[in-house]
Amino acid sequence: KPLVFSGVQPTGNLHLGNYLGAIRKFVALQDNNDCIYCVVDLHSITAQLVHEDLRGQIRSIAAAFIASGIDPEKHIVFNQSAVPQHAELAWIFNCVARIGWMNRMTQFKDKAGKDRENASLGLLAYPSLMAADILVYRATHVPVGDDQKQHLELTRDIAQKFNIDFMAHIRARGYGVDIVVGEEPIHAYFPPVEPLIGGPAPRVMSLRDGTKKMSKSDPSDLSRINLMDDADTILKKIRKAKTDPDALPSEADGLKGRPEAENLVGIYAALSDRSKDEVLAEFGGQQFSAFKPALADLAVTVLSPITGEMRRLMGDTAHIDAILRKGGERARERAEKTMREVREIIGFLQ
Ligand code: TYM
């Protein structure tokens, strides 16, 4: 079975972008894969060190996973800091990756802003830790939103450089397999990682501006639908969502150059597990005054059971903590297996 890994940061409220770009895909992948889903608490201290209620945030992401339908018995749900092997492998990857690779990351540039000298070293090294998250399990498939694409390319680069730099040691220990990456045959310890980004809403945009990503940090709450929003708030936000004056086209091609229309149709498609063309076959020719209430209804129908279940789970923190603790134990066992080999490959005594 392919091994799937993904993570979500415990910062701020989860929004529809996180749900459609990531969590909904996590749920769908459970049937045919072995899945590991992680609350990446170590990542959440890179941009902001001190959090008022980090424990509560960690629990709420775990609650969102479970409320959305992830089965923590069949798969693994845990928080990153419970498995110190992530940080250990990240340190090794800090010595594999080059500063130039990190400097080129658009997310680093965005988050560090103008005062780059004053960003934390952790923010710069963020993608090393992300590569370690995935590769410490030697996972091969990673469901994420479009904004994580560059980080996953870097993960492939780190794996490739490690494999090449240590190839003789990997072989000497009898680890790894022969694979072809691009054109090049190599003996690899870490597999090449495949991002799973597709679907009708890989990048959910702000409801106020179809050219900006929906994000936790947008100052306008009207720009996003939060997973914890109640039905009235969802209705209001969709009613107020920016649109253009034209009717909907009858095919997805007609959405080009209409970012707000494309975004809302993409959201409808993702929430109903259909393609944009299928949605437009139904709504083509209609005005937003007809489409928006249908979208709002659909959003409430899909999200309100999740919101309700999240609230219920958050009322029983002992239960969530027990799930995370057990998940952490299972994850640690697997991660340690990789780390014993990695330490051998590098030449540490153990
Ligand atoms: P994070 O916590 O910012 O976001 C969690 C997931 O939500 C996706 N996402 C979106 N998808 C579509 N439209 C949007 N507007 C939108 N906003 C966010 C993100 O792409 C992500 O999949 N670095 C990661 C966390 C991470 C990770 C990993 C992911 C750490 N280690 C290993 C995969 C594998 C992050 O900050 O996601």
Please write out the topology.
Blueprint: E1 3-8, H1 16-29, E2 34-39, H2 54-68, E3 76-79, H3 85-96, H4 99-103, H5 106-112, H6 121-135, E4 141-143, H7 149-165, H8 167-172, E5 177-181, E6 184-188, E7 194-196, H9 231-240, H10 259-271, H11 276-283, H12 288-314, H13 317-346
Parallel strand pairs: 1-2, 2-3, 4-7
Antiparallel strand pairs: 5-6
Helix pairs in contact: 2-12, 3-6, 3-13, 6-7, 9-12, 10-11, 10-12
The protein binds tryptophanyl-5'AMP.
What does this entry look like structurally?
- The protein is mostly helical and 350 residues long.
- It has 2 domains: 3-200 and 317-346, HUPs (Rossmann fold, 3-Layer(aba) Sandwich), CATH 3.40.50.620; 221-313, Tyrosyl-Transfer RNA Synthetase (Orthogonal Bundle), CATH 1.10.240.
- It is built from 13 helices and 7 strands.
- The protein has helices at 16-29, 54-68, 85-96, 99-103, 106-112, 121-135, 149-165, 167-172, 231-240, 259-271, 276-283, 288-314, 317-346; strands at residues 3-8, 34-39, 76-79, 141-143, 177-181, 184-188, 194-196.
- A 3-stranded parallel sheet has the order 1-2-3. Strands 4-7 form a two-stranded parallel ribbon. Strands 5-6 form a two-stranded antiparallel sheet.
- Helix 1 (16-29) links the parallel strand 1 (3-8) and strand 2 (34-39).
- Helix 10 (259-271) crosses helix 12.
- The longest helix has 30 residues, at 317-346.
- The two termini are 31 Å apart.
- The site of tryptophanyl-5'AMP has 24 residues, from strand 1, helix 1 and helix 6.
- Tryptophanyl-5'AMP is lined by residues 5-9, 17-18, 21-22, 40, 43, 130, 133-134, 142, 144-145, 147-148, 151, 203-204, 213-214.
